Amino acid sequence: MDVVSDAISAVHLGHPWFRRVRTNGSWRARLDPYDGAGFHVVLKGHCWLQTDGGDPVRLGVGDAVLLPHGTGHVIADSPVDAAVAARKAVPFEQWLAQTEPPARPGGDGTELLCGKYWLDCSRMHPLMAELPEVVHLPGRVGSHLELRAAIDLLAGELDEVRHGSWVALPNLLDLLLVYMIRSWMSETTSGAWPGVLGDPVTAAAVRAMHANPAARWSNDRLAAEAGVSRATLARRFTALVGRPPMTYLTWWRVILAATLLRDTEETLAAIAGRVGYGSPYALSHAFEREFGTTPGRYRAQATGRSASTRKPSTDFRTS
User: How far apart are CA 311 and CA 15, in angstroms?
Assistant: First the structure.
């Protein structure tokens, strides 16, 4: 896979939780911090979002916002200061119970798609870790065309139950996550990883390691893949990524092993071969050094965490 796909797949658990809501009048709802990535898409009307300690952000029709670190926040019909929000905002689940079920498109008020992606934050790729607290992607005409198309498709699936909707909607929501991260990377002027993937030398080495992590990589072979000297690769890679190429490769192999332990029933020996270790013992040693636990214990814990996220958790036509 490519680096962005790998970064998402390493932490992504099951299907996203989501709820379509319609609300009128004056309202404020608070979501406490949680492990995962929250998102809101404004399908109609407008609202305001305020993170804990942040400034209010106005969201209009077609806007998408991602909170990749599960930051606590308030959504409301109008901007409020933090003190008022903390005192008067209704807990999110209580607010959901009070909103109108959007049985059909049209009508007055604000209509939102709210939800969250379940993430295993114990092994987050640095590309995901450096995302800001709020990724706000305005619905400007002509901007982020793929994201706009995904939002339009989501709205269509939400407006009418059609054959295959239960398969289409969770996959469209996963696509929404990819497009939000991709759109952020195309616009941001901060963060290391847009620079890593924009640098031809470092990007070539990273792509090679992700495309075939089990290969017998060395600094010389990676330098040849990037078309530069070993010294040039080491200097540019370390400056942009923050660690030398082979150190990054070792880390990524263990992270990939953790993903396979969580998502497959493959034996430790098979996983060791897939991620470039000569024996289960060698992988176990590296794994325990990174995670502080054995692969077997990690698999048991990860299986329990992911069991409740495998199916959509709500009827997407109701509040």
Answer: 6
Determine the distance from the C-alpha atom of residue 76 to the mean position of all C-alpha atoms in its chain, rounded to a whole number: 24
- Measured distance CA(86)–CA(79) in Å, rounded: 13
Report which residue type is found at 236: R
Q: Tell me, what amino acid is at 73?
A: H
Chain length of the chain:
319
Contact 63, 42 (CB under 8 A): yes
Answer whether 276's CB lies under 8 Å from 213's CB.
yes
Backbone Cα Rg of the chain: 22
Residue 232 has what pLDDT? 97
Give the C-alpha separation, 1 to 210, whole Å.
7
**Beta-ladder partners of 64:** 41, 137
Taking the CA of residue 192 as centre, how many other CA atoms within 13 Å lie in the half-sphere pointing to its CB? 15
Q: DSSP secondary structure string, 172-237?
A: HHHHHHHHHHHHHHHH-S--HHHHHHHSHHHHHHHHHHHH-TTS---HHHHHHHHTS-HHHHHHHH
This prediction's pTM = 0.86
According to DSSP, the β-strands at 64-67 and 37-44 are antiparallel
Q: Which of 34, 134, 30, 47 is nearest to 86 (CA)?
A: 30
**pLDDT surpassing 60 at residue 209:** yes
pLDDT at 316: 40
**Is pLDDT above 50 for 315?**
no
CB 257 within 8 A of CB 271: yes
Which residue in this structure is represented by tokens 């195309």?
186
In 173-201, which positions are buried (b, 16+ CB within 10 angstroms) versus exposed (e)? bbbbbebbbebbbeeeeebebbbbbebeb
Tokens of 177: 């996550």
Evaluate if residue 265 carries a pLDDT over 50: yes
- The pLDDT of residue 305 is above 80: no
Task: Please give the Cα distance from 319 to 315 (Å, whole number).
Answer: 8
Look up residue 231 and give its two tokens. Answer: 């010294």
